[in-house]
Amino acid sequence: MNKAKVMSFIKVNTMIIALILVTGFFVWQTGGKILLPQNVSNLISQNAYVFILATGMLMCILTGGNIDLATGSVVCFVGAVGATLMENSNVNWVISVILMLIIGTGIGAWQGFWIAYVRVPPFITTLAGMLIFRGLSNVVLQGLTVSLTNVKFIKMFGGGANCYIPDIFGVKGFNLTCMLVGITACIIYLIIQIRGRITKAKKGYDMTSLKNMIAKAVIISAAILAFSYQLASFRGIPTALVIVAIVVLVYGYITAKTTLGRHFYAVGGNEKAAKLSGINTNRIYFLAYVNMGFLAALAGMMTIARMTSAQPTYGQNYELDAIGACFIGGASAYGGTGKVSGVIIGALLMGVINLGMSIMGVDANYQKVVKGLVLLAAVIFDVISKKKNA
């Protein structure tokens, strides 16, 4: 019986355990360098676009394993338009941000229309979008680099050396505000877990054992506190992390707590049954790609802010990073299964692998090989699990 409980715990928390093991491996191989405060901060700043795009990609995958291959090109195109507006046309940065969001959302709606209402396969539609918007990016930038000089925009979207939340307590060498935010996050997480368990008990739902819940809560709380301590030891909370947190919380709530979120899972689980039950499946497909376009625009702004420039090559392979994070984080290749929290763990795992191998000096080509093998292993695990449960 105890063995069964252990196996159940491992199955439910496979990716968390994998993240801990991989991090431990790189701590050993790098002599602890991967956990230096600056590297932990860089892990967030450099992978912020993955967290954002993977959250949007999850919505597409939930509808039946569909993906958006145009994401990286849209990131580049939106960034190119925004940089050109701010630097070459002297458009106010706030107006430029609004226009970039409108453009990204419009692109998502354009692709969503063909996919949802004309039923052009998502692969073909977004492949066309990948080529179209990559080409338009070159047209807008005329093949050149546009440097960003707007300090407010750069700071707002996580670029530059001062893109951190200041410490309101003014402690030198340690950002106390960051640490208090981490402690508060742990308290909120524990309250949510306890309230959720009480609610399930009242309604008679199946629950994991109390020991498993406590073990998971201790591991996650310890990770949050350790992460907060490392950030506080450097410069504090990056503004990119604030944006990522808002996106994750909003979309996590939508997918887990709203009727609309349940519709995404229903469509991915069985589209015909969902349609017969009264769900507007076309609308769900459409909204998935509208969301993807919106988040691609946000990622585009964060990309040009971090790089303090716009180039025709930005965004290459971003869609593959987002897709990989989703599947590694537990999203099913068949649709209908996946959580935002899992996607974030998947993105963190990829980020740790990238950072760890970079510190070790592993050749970039071998890094791609490792990432490919990790992605393949995650999908194989999903396929085998489906067969066992069938």
TrEMBL record:
Location of the protein in the cell: Cell membrane
Keywords on record: Cell inner membrane, Cell membrane, Membrane, Sugar transport, Transmembrane, Transmembrane helix, Transport
Entry GO MF terms: transmembrane transporter activity
The UniProt record lists the keyword Cytoplasm: no
Transmembrane segments: 12-31, 43-62, 69-86, 92-116, 174-192, 213-231, 237-254, 284-305, 343-362
Topology within the bilayer: Multi-pass membrane protein
Listed name of the protein: Xylose transport system permease protein XylH
